[in-house]
């Protein structure tokens, strides 16, 4: 009997968003290091591939006021990951860092340093931004067209890989008297001139234990999928329904051959929320209770106001959806990415869902934002996760709890052992394994600009 496909799990630190219930008495701090310490320890105890931190470059605002889900702040991702790497031994550390408001040399240097400090456990979730709301914090204020942000991201990623690859493998040796010196040569000079960047550099951080940091990506547009197929080694997707997930999997993996890549060179790990109960009925009741905490009446109104672009405070959250047209010219003030004509299509779908099932504003928002991916007993959830992976709908999941920092505890304690019993999840870490090893990724190919030399 052949060995089952192995499940890969990442652990998403609960951030300031509509999933996290930070008003729960059991919720902890989003900033105190003890929260990150507990979360990372749980992920490592559960033998996860990596812990994953999102990053926001600005506190969200709504109607000129700080959005209530952001009042806890947004600490710097790299600082947290460096501290987490110091208190863990095996689990990877992956952070979201923006290609629109950073520079390739600086960010490549920071990530390469983290990769060395962690013993080859670092990863970079490369994201883009196109809106003036975030741009106002930087000298590059204003909008980037959707296509331009991915043009910048592709050039950014290609240049970062070229910088990382400019040092030959096995080239650094330590000497007590002379310090660190080159054994087999010097790093190649990187000369790059493109639409976005003009760089002439000798990269000053040697090649890391895993070759270079693992690149993660989350874009879902046509440009985002193309970027993922070209550069990403993990995709954090939002396609969680089985058929939808398998369609996304087939589409993106089908693009890999065009870039000379094999199926296993990219792992797709959708976000997965969960509700566990001793019985299925218990799990569904618990899911409903959490959803009501996640989508309070004022949160539901905020959601529809951001879609409609209007003040809808006069509407009852327990009543029907607004019957007015959206204001599609107010996107900068809302601080959300450009949606253009898609706004009307989205509203039409919301109305269809609401009218077909007789849902109120709040119930509609709950259905869209607070319905767990997996609901049931630990046995049912383990079986479903295994089915997704064995039938190639995903390579695993990015698990998202609803509490900080204990939201991962129950999953690690009750679901992970059942995955191990199925033979589709590791029972231990291999000593000295890098993040690339944990994910089952091949060694990185040399950047094309260097391979040609």
TrEMBL record:
Belongs to the NtaA/SnaA/DszA monooxygenase family. The keyword Nucleotide-binding does not apply. Keywords: Flavoprotein, FMN, Monooxygenase, Oxidoreductase. It holds the Pfam family Bac_luciferase. GO terms for molecular function: nitrilotriacetate monooxygenase activity. Its EC number is 1.14.14.10. This is Nitrilotriacetate monooxygenase component A. Residues 24-392 form the Luciferase-like domain. SUPFAM superfamilies: Bacterial luciferase-like (SSF51679). The keyword Flavoprotein applies. PANTHER family: ALKANESULFONATE MONOOXYGENASE-RELATED, C2H2 FINGER DOMAIN TRANSCRIPTION FACTOR (EUROFUNG)-RELATED. It comes from Microbacterium trichothecenolyticum (Aureobacterium trichothecenolyticum). FMN binds at residues 96, 146, 150, 221.
């Amino acid at each position: 009997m052949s060995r089952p496909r192995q499940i890969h799990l990442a652990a998403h630190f609960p951030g300031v968003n509509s999933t996290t219930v930070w008003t729960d008495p059991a919720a902890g701090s989003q900033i105190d290091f003890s929260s990150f310490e507990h979360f990372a320890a749980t992920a490592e105890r559960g033998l996860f591939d990596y812990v994953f931190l999102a990053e926001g470059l600005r506190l969200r605002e709504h109607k000129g006021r700080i959005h209530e889900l952001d009042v806890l702040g947004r600490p710097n991702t790299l600082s947290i990951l460096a501290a987490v790497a110091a208190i863990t031994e095996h689990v990877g550390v992956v952070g979201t860092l923006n290609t629109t408001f950073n520079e390739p040399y600086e960010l490549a240097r920071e990530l390469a340093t983290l990769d060395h400090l962690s013993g080859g456990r670092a990863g970079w979730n490369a994201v883009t931004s196109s809106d003036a709301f975030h741009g106002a914090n930087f000298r590059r204020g204003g909008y980037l067209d959707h296509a331009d942000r991915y043009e910048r991201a592709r050039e950014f990623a290609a240049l970062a890989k070229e910088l990382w690859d400019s040092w030959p493998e096995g080239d650094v040796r330590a000497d007590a008297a002379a310090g660190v010196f080159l054994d087999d040569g010097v790093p190649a000079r990187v000369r790059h001139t493109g639409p976005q960047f003009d760089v002439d550099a000798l990269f000053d951080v040697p090649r890391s234990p895993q070759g270079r940091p693992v690149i993660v990506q989350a874009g879902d547009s046509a440009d985002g999928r193309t970027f993922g197929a070209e550069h990403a080694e993990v995709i954090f997707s939002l396609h969680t329904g089985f058929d939808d997930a398998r369609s996304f999997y087939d589409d993106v993996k089908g693009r890999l051959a065009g870039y000379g890549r094999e199926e296993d060179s990219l792992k797709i790990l959708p976000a997965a929320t969960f509700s566990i109960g001793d019985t299925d009925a218990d799990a569904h009741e618990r899911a409903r209770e959490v959803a009501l905490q996640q989508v309070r009446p004022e949160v539901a109104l905020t959601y529809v106001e951001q879609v409609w672009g209007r003040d809808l405070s006069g509407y009852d959250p327990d009543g029907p959806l607004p019957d007015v047209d959206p204001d599609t010219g107010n996107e900068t003030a809302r601080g959300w990415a450009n949606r253009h004509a898609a706004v009307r299509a989205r509203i039409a779908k919301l109305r269809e869902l609401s009218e077909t099932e007789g849902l109120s504003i709040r119930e509609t928002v709950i259905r869209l934002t607070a319905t767990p991916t997996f609901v049931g007993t630990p046995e049912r959830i383990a079986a479903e996760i295994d089915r997704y992976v064995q039938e190639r709908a995903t390579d695993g999941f990015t698990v998202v709890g609803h509490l900080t920092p204990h939201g991962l505890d129950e999953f690690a304690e009750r679901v992970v052992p059942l995955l191990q019993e199925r033979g589709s999840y590791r029972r231990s870490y291999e000593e000295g394994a890098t993040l690339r090893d944990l994910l089952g990724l091949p060694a990185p190919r040399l950047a094309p600009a260097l391979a040609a030399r």
